[in-house]
Design brief:
Length: 264
Amino acid sequence: MSPALRPQGRSVNGGDPQAEERPPAGARHVAIIMDGNGRWAKKRALPRSLGHRAGVNALKRTVEGAAELGLEWMTVFGFSTENWSRPATEIAELMSLLKNYVRSDLARLEAEGARIRVIGRRSDLSPDVLEVIEHAEERTRNNDRFHLQVAFNYGGRADIAEAAGRYAAAIASGAVAPDEVGERAFGRFLSTAEGPPLDLIIRTSGERRLSNFLLWEAAYAELVFQDVLWPDYGPEHLKAALEEFESRERRYGGAEVDDVLAAG
Ligand code: FPP
C-alpha cells in the first residue's frame, strides 16, 4: 500500500452544499457493490463458493489499489440483510470468508496504517464472527491512513430505521436540542457517521441498482456501473471508475458548484 496518500481535503457535505468548502477533484470515499461472483463461477462451471473466494482475492487487489490511487475511505458491501435468504451453505461460506479475510490480512493492513470498521447489524452474527470483527477494529483503531469499511449484515433501510430510533431517544433525552434537529444532526446517528461524505458508488457485473446499499449516503454520490464481474475486478477497473468520476460535474442539486460556493 502506498504511503503517499492524497493530502487531506474537505468535501462538500452531500446534504448541505453550503456547509463546507469546495470538494477536491478526486474522490475521497468510494463504495463498491461487489456483484457477479455467482455468474463468474457459473461461467466456469464452478460452485458459487469458488466465485466468492475469487471475490475475496479481487477485494484484496482492489484495497491495495485504492490506497495507491489516493483514496482515503472505501466501503464495500460484503453481506446484505437480504442475503440471509440464500442457501445455508452459501451463508456459511460468506461468514467464513469474512473471518478468513480479516485473519489473513489484518497484520498487513494494520502495519500499513489501515483502519478496519464493520457496519451493519451485529445482533444476528455468531460469536466467532463477532470476535474477529471486534478484534480487527480494536487492533486498527488508531490507524487513519486508509479506512476500509465492510458493510456486513447491512441494509440501508435498516440502518436509517435504527438511526431514527437512536435519534428519537436523543431528542427525548435532550441530547439533541430542538434547534439542532435536521439532516446534519440525524446523519450523526447513522453507522457511517464517522466517514467523509460518499463521493462515488461503483457496482460491478452490469446490474444498475443500489440494492439497499448506503441509501442516505448516496444522495449526492456519483454512480458508476461497470460491466466486469467482481472476481475479475482490480485496481485498473477502480482507476477507470475514478477517471469517470473526475469527468463528472457535481451540482448538488443546484447550479455549478462554483456558483453555489460563491453564493455562500
Ligand atoms: C454478489 O455476488 C456478492 C456478494 C453477495 C457478496 C460479496 C462477497 C465477496 C466479494 C466475498 C466475500 C467478501 C467479504 C468481505 C466477506 P452474487 O453471489 O450475488 O453474484 P451473482 O449476482 O452473479 O449471483
